[in-house]
Amino acid sequence: MRVIANSVNALRELGEAPLETFASTFFLHAAAKRGFQMAIQSALDIGAILLSEASTDIPTEYRDIFPKLAEIGVLPEALAERLVAMAKFRNVLVHLYLEIEVERLYQYLQHNLGDFDEFAQHVANYLARVTGLDEDATR
Question: What pLDDT is recorded for position 132?
Answer without folding.
Answer: 82
